[in-house]
Amino acid sequence: MFERFTRDARQVVKGAVEYAEQAGAPSVDPEHLVLSVLDRRGSRASFALAALGLAERGESVRAALAEARRRAGLSRADADALAGLGIDVSEIVARVEEVHGVGAMSGDRKDRAWWSGRRTSFGRGAKEVLEKSLRVALARRDRHIGDEHILMALTVRPGAPAEVLADHGVTYESLTRVLYGDGEAKAG
Q1: Where is each Clp R domain found (predicted)?
Q2: Count of domains in the chain?
Q3: Are the C-beta atoms of 25 and 32 separated by less than 8 Å?
């Protein structure tokens, strides 16, 4: 499948691996793909993000993703559902971090890479996003998978990355309108 990726899409995947390795994460996850897409310049995904007003709010997305990672990747919807059962995720995070340090629930291990000798692998969520990006490209009758298809796939997979993007006005519908719509580059 990777041979069908454009140069921009390959750069997103490569950047996601670098983000995961820098964080000491056990695998490349969807949030690493989001962070890498945010770094792109001069690509279809960067055009769409700029048209949706996200170019100047990238740090807000990064902060929201970091907060979700602190909650072990739970979205706000997940945390709210647990709160309905009487489980206070914020309290659990605070207690764990009190004992083990800030970010202990993120799953990142800064010391893991030195002894493993292996490159970071792709987690199930990131694999699902990449597979979905193929389906998005095929549905759009595009010959190649671009970084815009990865971005669109990130918006439809349930979880914190899609929630954070939606909170910033980046949804599948808004991306479709900007990338394939009637030429309007306004979406919120």
Answers
A1: 2-188
A2: 1
A3: yes
